[in-house]
Amino acid sequence: MKTATTRRERARVATSAEIVTTARRLLIEHGVEGVTLRAIAREMGMTAPGLYRYVNSHEDLMTGLITSLFDEATGCLEAARDAARHEHVGVRMLEVCRAFRRWALANPAELALVFGSPIPGFSVPEEGPTEEAGRRFCGVFLGLFIELWQRQPFPVREDEDIDPGLRAGLDAWSPVELNLPAGVLELFLRCWMRLYGAVTMEGFGQLAWAVEDAEPLFELELATLADVLGMSDAYSAPPSSAG
């Protein structure tokens, strides 16, 4: 039986959401150094003791902010996947990749916080909400990768051809319920590294010295990804990159 939410509970949820929104605005305007409990209390017209009723520490604040950003990015990926739900799994995967890039370029400060350099004095709590949110984010791509493998297996390396140290790491990481060959997991990580690298290099401005518009390069990476996964027929360049 559901219990009706009290006015006090609704007010607490609303204030907690406003804290995260304010923290994000400070991040955009002043960088990560500007995201402090004192600054948030000032912006919201609260006292420091009042803010501590909602946030236990600066680490707690950053955990909530990063988790919310992961959740937002995950929502963008899921929306792109679901919008193409009637398409081939390869098409859905490529749309998810493009959605990651769009979110990254639209949110450079947030990208830097979530995927950039570690924050001095802050470490993500193990098995906490941020780690779980990160797994959900990566899981959108992983889920499609596994679906593609199950529907039309692509070439992967045999277990004995994989470096023993890497193989041990893959075996330790592999979700037991999936029962996937080590070669599939290895190729997933290689593809994920490729996607992550392409998105973050552009998002962090590391390609600006060479090209003003990196979308054609990104599309080349997607075309290569499609070829590696045996789904070249699923790739079609968007009009803006078709030349």
Explain the overall architecture.
The protein has ten helices and no strands. By secondary structure, it is mostly helical. It has two domains: 1-55, Orthogonal Bundle (Arc Repressor Mutant, subunit A); 57-241, Tetracycline Repressor, domain 2. It is globular, with a radius of gyration of 21 Å. It starts with 6 loop residues before the first helix and ends in a 15-residue tail after the last helix. The relative contact order is 0.10. GO terms for molecular function: DNA-binding transcription factor activity; transcription cis-regulatory region binding.
State the secondary-structure class. mainly alpha
Determine the oligomeric state from the structure: single chain
Q: Report the CATH topology name of the largest domain.
A: Tetracycline Repressor, domain 2
How many helices? The count is 10
Please give the CATH class of the largest domain. Answer: Mainly Alpha
Helix content: 55-70%
CATH architecture assignment name of the largest domain: Orthogonal Bundle
Strand fraction band? under 5%
**CATH-assigned homologous superfamily of the largest domain:** Tetracycline Repressor, domain 2
Largest beta sheet, briefly? none
- State the end-to-end CA separation: 58 Å
